[in-house]
Design a protein that fits this description.
Layout: H1 2-19, E1 23-24, E2 27-28, E3 34-42, H2 46-54, H3 56-62, E4 66-69, E5 76-80, E6 93-101, E7 105-110, H4 118-123, E8 128-137, E9 140-148, H5 154-176
Antiparallel strand pairs: 1-3, 2-3, 3-9, 4-5, 5-6, 6-7, 7-8, 8-9
Helix pairs in contact: 2-3
């Protein structure tokens, strides 16, 4: 009986561990445009998942210790990884809120800061992150992050590589909450 119980617990732990990873399903469209796509499944309902992305408190739990959101179309998310900085500091990250469908989708305009190659920053007009929230069941939500609008050239390749690594790390921070 103990052996069966241990096998059940082990199977449950393995099953949860398999879900607790970031899936990279990036691709190039038939039109030659890069798409950076990562997804995770979190063990909370869709409304709680939505709050992680749309409230100051939610953002501070996983993305950055300094976070401020003006949750509306035309609003923005501003974050800083340094606790001693403000959201108005030049090292802050600003994402404009293009649109959203509550509990389903949030589209952000990615504004490259001074950490990126000047050529990419100058050319950046279309870089966006589309966040989709998909109900898996009453206690699980799939988050799909899709970044589109990449430019061409080695400076854009560097930006893409940065976001590929950075977004993977960022979504692992969400998973650490659980």
């Amino acid at each position: 009986m103990k052996k069966i119980f241990l096998v059940i617990i082990l199977a449950h732990l393995i099953s949860n561990n398999l879900n607790a990873q970031v899936a990279n399903t990036s691709y190039v469209t038939q039109y030659g445009e890069k798409v950076l796509q990562l997804s995770i499944i979190v063990p909370i309902n869709i409304k709680e998942t939505w709050k992680l992305f749309t409230t100051d408190e939610g953002l501070k739990k996983w993305i950055a210790p300094v976070a401020k959101i003006d949750m509306k179309i035309g609003g923005s998310i501003r974050t800083n990884y340094a606790e001693n900085k403000t959201v108005d500091d030049t090292t802050s990250i600003k994402l404009d809120i293009i649109n959203y469908i509550e509990y389903e989708m949030l589209t952000l305009k990615v504004n490259l800061n001074n950490s990126f190659p000047p050529e990419a920053k100058k050319e950046d007009k279309n870089l966006q992150e589309i966040l989709q929230f998909v109900k898996v069941d009453d206690n699980k939500t799939k988050i799909i992050s899709t970044m589109v609008g990449w430019g061409q050239g080695s400076h854009w390749d560097k930006a893409y590589s940065f976001f590929e690594k950075g977004n993977d790390w960022t979504y692992k921070q969400i998973l650490k909450l659980f």
